[in-house]
Design a protein that fits this description.
With 622 residues, this protein is of the alpha/beta class. The chain is built from 21 helices and twelve strands. The protein folds into three domains: 44-247 and 345-394 and 565-622, Alpha/Beta hydrolase fold, catalytic domain (Rossmann fold, 3-Layer(aba) Sandwich), CATH 3.40.50; 248-344, no CATH class; 402-452 and 461-487, no CATH class. 46% of the residues lie in helices and 9% in strands. The chain crosses the membrane at residues 514-536.
Length: 622
């Protein structure tokens, strides 16, 4: 017994030592975690170690591209920044004594600051086409591949993570570049690439973790992003979507997002003027599309705010900043234009989630994006405006036009018909909002379908999807002819009718299935036979009556000449012959920037998905 007691005592002592050791280790881990958390750079500009004044890039030119880069003391990796059409790499840095040509814009500079403060080197490359500013896989991919690889070697970054962040045309180009560069993460802003032109199949090491930022007003882009996500999910690659909705323009909105160039008093003056000219309602909602309106609101704003400087030009009856003006160093007008488009949230660069993306990429795409958004999102409004903005974000389909007819005169003063004209604009905006609601309903249903396997999907009833309450409430005001409205507002059986109806359906389901299958099979076979006969007969008669010609753009034999409308001069005549190309032209090249460009050159360069194979001094790779 004494020996047993001794052994028990020894065991208890050893157990106590183990428990104390484990407790000490736990405390050490907690302390280490707290230290790491404290060391993480926050997204508040007030706590950034690197400020706007310290954005001082090195400028270089290689492989026909001008680029701007800055490297912190101990880089943990690199971020390649791809601008949109009519922009340049110099928009990611402010003008300074080391970069006189730089013209920093608020969202672009915020990308640079967040990356540098996270410990990443940044490199912003200008596209080869300086007439349009757009990117082309044919003209840019080989050069950018060589440039980035060489830059990584020279700066000692070759073995460190490489991330990419792109907007619009730059995002389209970036999403196709993993076949050439070993990215560890991609952030695509306001763009989903067309799957047939993506080239994701050519990425040998697996497509990198990807975040798509979807501006939910742009229904066509949202559809592309949802399709891109489905492809990456099928490939078992990390992918996430961050949704962006319209936001309020509050008095200090412009100075909060562009503190380097716009002061708070100037921001208040700009906001008041925007209300008076009818761009904002009394609550701060952007009620007219800043990019596509023919209202010369930028000129009106400059007249109302004399201290607001920056060149303005016209394009297709629209007034836009003169992005190509290199003589004026004032970017205030361009900044206001960009930030108004951001608030409207249809198609614009947005820096709110740059740090979110970097942290997610660091986790290999395994972290919870929603949790990261609560901790690392940049650009939140001040406290008095948190509630309205959060309300819009959580309920994006809530009507933005909440003011009454009697309040319209407060927005525009000095005009007798200001109320009626603005009311017309508000009505048009409300109609557009209803369309956006319909797009959101469809996008939501598509997203739900991803999470339902094929076996369950076959059993689902049309109304079995759990639609959020705010979408259901919004459906009542949507277009009754739209698909989404029919999906949500279809008549439902009452609780008393359902048991009897289900019993009747169960008793007749077997016979109905057999009979329906036979009838449908016979009908389909007859239709197919008729279609084949008609096509064959049509081709025989066409071959006898019409000579074969060559399409000028396709260089392939076509039987029927193109309609007369396709033969007018210009690029559109050629694009309209090729299925899908005109859509890509409007989507990836024009990019909704509203700025002059050379359409004919873009036709020749934008849609060739293969890198140059002849005449390139860089064919060998690196």
């Amino acid at each position: 017994m004494p020996q047993v007691r001794g052994k028990c005592a020894a065991f208890q002592g050893a157990l106590g030592v183990v428990m104390v050791s484990m407790l000490a280790a736990l405390v050490a881990l907690l302390c280490l975690g707290a230290a790491v958390e404290a060391a993480v750079v926050t997204t508040s500009p007030a706590t950034w170690a690197i400020s706007y004044d310290e954005l001082r890039p090195t400028i270089a030119v290689k492989y026909r591209h001008r680029f701007y880069y800055q490297i912190p003391a101990e880089p943990r990796g690199a971020v390649v920044l791809f601008h949109g059409c009519v922009h340049s790499g110099y928009n990611y840095f402010p003008r300074s004594d080391v970069c006189d040509e730089c013209r920093g814009l608020p969202e672009e500079m915020s990308h640079s600051l967040q990356a540098l403060n996270r410990g990443y080197a940044v490199i912003a490359i200008s596209s080869w086409d300086r007439n349009t500013g757009c990117w082309s896989l044919a003209n840019d991919s080989d050069d950018v591949k060589q440039l980035v690889r060489e830059w990584q070697r020279e700066q000692g970054l070759r073995d460190l993570p490489l991330m990419g962040m792109g907007i619009s045309s730059g995002a389209s180009f970036m999403l196709k570049m993993p076949r050439h560069l070993n990215f560890t993460g991609l952030l695509s802003e306001a763009l989903g690439v067309t799957p047939d032109d993506w080239g994701y199949q050519r990425v040998k090491e697996g497509y990198p973790p990807t975040i798509f930022i979807a501006m939910m007003k742009d229904g066509s882009t949202v559809e592309k992003i949802m399709e891109d996500k489905r492809i990456l999910v099928d490939l078992r690659r990390p992918v996430a979507i961050i949704r962006v909705y319209p936001r309020l323009v509050y008095p200090s909105y412009f100075s909060d997002r562009d503190p380097l160039y716009i002061s708070k008093p100037l921001s208040i003056e700009i906001t008041n003027a925007l209300r008076k000219i009818g761009m904002l309602d009394v609550e701060g909602n952007v009620i007219i599309d800043p990019r596509y309106t023919t209202l010369p609101w930028l000129n009106m704003l400059k007249d109302a705010v004399p201290s607001l400087k920056g060149p303005v030009t016209t394009f297709k009856a629209q007034y836009v900043p003169d992005w190509n003006d290199t003589f004026s160093s004032d970017t205030k007008v361009a900044a206001v234009y960009s930030l108004m488009n951001l608030a409207y949230a249809y198609h614009e660069i947005i820096s709110d989630y740059a740090t979110v993306a970097m942290v997610w990429f660091e986790s290999g795409g395994k972290a919870d994006v929603a949790d990261l958004q609560t901790r690392y999102t940049y650009g939140l409004p001040p406290a008095p405006y948190n509630l309205p903005v959060a309300e819009v974000s959580q309920n994006p389909l809530k009507p933005l036009m909440r003011q009454e007819r009697s309040a319209l005169e407060v927005v525009v003063e000095g005009e007798e018909d200001s109320g009626s004209s603005l009311f017309t604009a508000l009505r048009a905006a409300a109609d557009a909002e209803a369309e956006a609601a319909d797009d959101e309903l469809l996008a939501y249903s598509q997203e739900v379908e991803e999470e339902v396997d094929a076996a369950d999907a076959a059993k689902q009833l049309p109304l079995s999807i759990a639609v959020p309450a705010h979408l259901l409430s919004r459906a009542a005001g949507a277009n009754p002819r739209s698909r989404a409205s029919r999906m949500v507002t279809a008549p439902k059986r009452s609780a008393e009718q359902q048991p009897a109806a289900l019993a009747g359906e169960a008793s007749h389901s077997g016979l109905a299935t057999v009979a329906g299958g036979l009838l449908c099979g016979s009908a389909v076979a007859a239709l197919l036979a008729a279609a084949v006969w008609l096509i064959a007969r049509h081709r025989r008669s066409a071959a006898q009556l019409s000579p074969v010609s060559l399409g000028p753009a396709t260089m392939q034999a076509v039987v029927h000449p193109a309609p007369a409308a396709h033969h007018h001069a210009g690029a559109n005549a050629r694009l309209s012959i090729i299925p899908g190309v005109k859509e890509r032209f409007e989507y990836e090249v024009v990019e909704q920037t509203g700025s002059p460009f050379s359409a004919r050159r873009r036709v020749k360069t934008a849609f060739n998905e293969s890198p140059r194979k002849a005449g390139s001094p860089h064919k060998g790779g690196a």
